[in-house]
Amino acid sequence: MAPSHLARSSKPLSERYLSFAEREEIALLRAQGAGVREMARHLGRAASTISRELRRNAATRGGNLDYRATTAQWHAERAARRPKPAKLASHAPLRSYVQERLSGLVTRPDGGEVNGPAVPWKGRRHGPRQHRRWARAWSPEQIAARRQLDYPDDESMRISHEAIYQALYVQGRGALKRELTQCLRTGRALRVPRARAQSGGKSFVTPEVLISERPAEAEDRAVPGHWEGDLILGLNSSAIGTLVERTTRFTMLLHLPPMEGHGTQPRAKNGPALAGHGAEAVRDAITRTITTLPEQVRRSLTWDQGAEMAQHARLRIDAGLKVYFCDPHSPWQRGTNENTNGLLRQYFPKGTNLGAYDIEELAAVAAALNGRPRKTLGWRTPAEALDGVRRSVHGGVATTT
Does the keyword RNA-binding belong to this entry (predicted)? Predict the structure, then answer.
C-alpha cells in the first residue's frame, strides 16, 4: 500500500477540467508563440477552453498576462473551492433589486398601493384554487435581463435567472426568503393536462368573420392595433374580460360586475345574462374600454366562439373594431391572449370569486402586467412599447400607465 502521506486528499478532477499536465503544455506552447487554436488542436480541447484559461488563470502580479502552469493551477483550485457564498447573500443592492421586482406591491395608475388578498405563508406554495399573494411578480429571467438595461455599466449588478431560482429553492443559500416563492407565476410545481370543452361552432359566426379572413398584417404583428380577447371565469359565475394587443402585448381588463337581481331572482327565459358577462355586457365593456385608445391602435379583435360575442355586429359599429373568430377548439390561434390569461391567473386563481374586485383593482393588476419587461419586446415593457406607438400616431410624447 502507498504511504498515507502520498494518498489523494480529494477525488481526482473530471476530465472536463484541465489538468496540471495540460497547463504545463499550454505554458510551453505559449512560450513558443503558438496561437489559441493551435494549442486547442494539440491538446484536443475547444479553442474557447484555452482562451478562457489564458484569460482567467494568468499571472497578473507583474502587470502582464503571463501564463505559468503553477500559478494557473493555484487559481483554478481556489475557484473550485465549495461552498461559495451566494452573490445575492453578499450583495445587498442586488438583493434589494431582485426582491423589489419579485415581491413589490401592485400599484394603481395614480401610484397608490394595492395589497390584494391577505395570504398567510404556510411553508409551501399555494395551489391554483386558492387566493394568491399579489406582487409585481417579474420572473427571474425578466429580472436578470432587465438589470442589463437598468445598470449597463455596473458589473457588480449582474445576476443570472438560475441564481435567483437557486436562492429561492436551494436551502442554505441564505439569500432570498422561501416565502417569496409564492410571488412566482405558477401555483403548482408541474403542468397538468386540462380537459377541453367539446362544443360546436356558434350560429352567429359566419364564414366572413372567421380568422381565415383576418388581414395578413395581424398575423405577422407588423402593424399594431390588432387585439385578442377572452374571458377568465371564477366562482358564482363571475368573470373578467381580457384584451391583449398582439404587437405590444399591452393588456386591458374589462370589469364585468353582476347585474341587478343576480342570485336573488330566477333568470327570465331568453333574458339578459344577470351574471354580468352576457353578450350585451361584454359588448358595452369592450366599447367603453377600447375607445379610450386612438383609432390607429384599434383595428381588429380576435375572440373564440363564445356566446358572449353574439352582438359582435353591434360592437363593430360602436367601437369601430372588426371582429374575427377562431376555429372551434383552436386556442393557439389566440396564443398571445392565452399566455396573458395564464399570467393573470397569478392574481385571479381558478376557483375564486372574481366579482370581488373593482375597476381600480383591475387597473392596478393591468398596470403591473404592463410594467413587466418582455423578452419578445427586447426586454421593454408593454407600456413602453405602446407609448412608442402612440407617439408615432400623435407625433408627440405620450404616457401609458
Answer: no
- pTM across the whole model: 0.66
Give the whole-angstrom CA distance, residue 312 versus residue 202: 12
In angstroms, the CA 183 to CA 195 distance is 27
* Rounded CA separation 318/325 (Å): 18
* pLDDT surpassing 70 at residue 47: yes
Q: Does residue 267 lie within any of the structural domains? A: no
Task: Sort 163 into a burial class: Cβ within 10 Å, 0-12 / 13-18 / 19+.
Answer: buried
Q: In sequence order, what are the residues at sequence separation of 6 or more whose Cβ sits closer than 8 angstroms to the Cβ of residue 347?
A: 106, 116, 132, 134, 365, 368
- CA gap 256, 357 in Å, rounded: 10
User: Dihedral through CA 215, CA 382, CA 392, CA 213, nearest 10?
Assistant: 10
The pairing of strands 113-114 and 106-107 is: antiparallel
Q: Is residue 13 part of a domain?
A: no
Task: Give the E-state strand segments of 175-280 in sequence order.
Answer: 226-233, 239-245, 251-255
CA dihedral in degrees (364, 368, 370, 372; nearest 10)?
A: 180
Question: What is the tens place of the pLDDT at every residue in 359-387?
Answer: 999 999 999 999 999 999 999 999 999 99
Q: What is the DSSP letter of 334?
A: G
pLDDT greater than 60 at residue 200: no
DSSP assignment letter at 259: P
> What confidence category does residue 207 fall into, taking pLDDT thresholds of 50, 70 and 90?
confident
Number of domains making up the chain: 3
130: closest CA among 372, 298, 369, 353?
353
**What residue numbers bound the domain in which 154 lies?**
87-183
Q: Are residues 341 and 237 in the same domain?
A: yes
